[in-house]
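Trying the structure run again after the queue cleared.
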Amino acid sequence: MKNEPKKENVYQLNGEVPLSTAIPLGLQHVAAMFAGNLTPILIITGICGISSGSALQITILQNAMLISGLVTLLQVIGFGPIGGKLPIVMGTSSGFIGVSKGIASSMGGGLIGFGAILGASLIGGLFEGVLGFFLKPLRKFFPSIVTGTVVLAIGLSLLDVGIAFFAGGFGAKDFGSIENLTLGFIVLIVIIIFRHAKSPFLQATSIIIGIMVGYLVSGIMGIILPKTLSIIAADGSTTEVLKSWVLSGQQIANAKWFSLPKFMPVKLVFDVKAIFPMLIMFIVTTVETIGDVSGITQGGMDREATDDELSGAVMCDGVGSSLASIFGVLPNTSFSQNVGLVGMTGIVNRFVIGIGGLALVLCGLFPKLAAIISIMPMSVLGGAAVMMFASIAVSGIGLLTKEKLTSRNITILIVSLGLGFGLGSNPAAVAHLPSVLQLFFSGSGIVPAAIFAIVLNIILPKEIEEAK
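Done. Tokens:
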């Protein structure tokens, strides 16, 4: 007789889970990554002169949700060697914003610039797919001291992002206002309460419950508090702007009920000036993906990732990024937000994450569904993000302590975080380096920390340490 699906199977990779349990848990992962999935596209389309709210930008955003869902399903289900078959959520990578800005500038911006970014992404994705195929022989370069350092760096690099969301979001006119901080704290407190509830189901759904409460509280705040903020310009004129925590139903009303994705909305352009820096960035994102996968297996399953899981996940990154480029979308990679969610809740069930991927596909086909999520105040997301991002760092610590912290390993960790993460977190410190090196050392502390960890792990003699 076939076993009945059980709620507690959410903590098993391949256990059967009731649909009534899988849906809210899957939606947690969509809510955690929704804003981050679309933000890079809003930034790069703006740089390339694609006007905000234009039909082309809306098409690209719609395609981004659809591709994210499809590549997530590929990652979770797998197709041959492609896909880690792990609870990995895929989305538009913010790590490519810097190199995309440079490509757009070198190509003169406009649709030519955006097309060059997409053309380079297509080539770069195929390159990463090949890199993933040959990852097994390279596994020796990624012991737990290296992957733990990378995962810890990922968590540390996201902490200021979580606090920025908590305070209202980047660019918010009311950033750090009492309303934003209050809303963020309410969401955080609700999550903490339900995370320690007696019911395992309430513990598992603590994030989505906190977000739903955040929606409700922001709606009540909109009834009893002023919704606008007066901004005084340099010339003395005053402009009224909507506060960042206000729920706006206009986006939902304006969104279509159904819309098919458009194939190749922007013509791809292939140029060496764009392809070379993009290839470098795909090497970088391979290291980040290895860190994300390691964070998921450590934080959710208390073990290291296998060769096949790492290789399949990296190949899926590459194939997904190439597919995304054909639909006008920037490269897709594993989302660290969801790594933090897995580490925090312990939910590693592939079916649950697959439901989240399916929800993203539906958001791409039914824009009104996407609009409901898109109006989420950033401070609501921030209330959850501060815990999720910190849990990534905790997963990194777990990986680091898998082996004895010898003086050799401590040296690797100290130098990688102190010098590597420090340089990467302060772009001004590397402003005079050649542009190629700046791709590695600017914008994020993750990559330089990973580079130092890998190099030191190779050159520091292990035999001496073992002899001691």
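The first helix runs from residue 19 to 47. Worth checking whether this holds up in the mutant runs.
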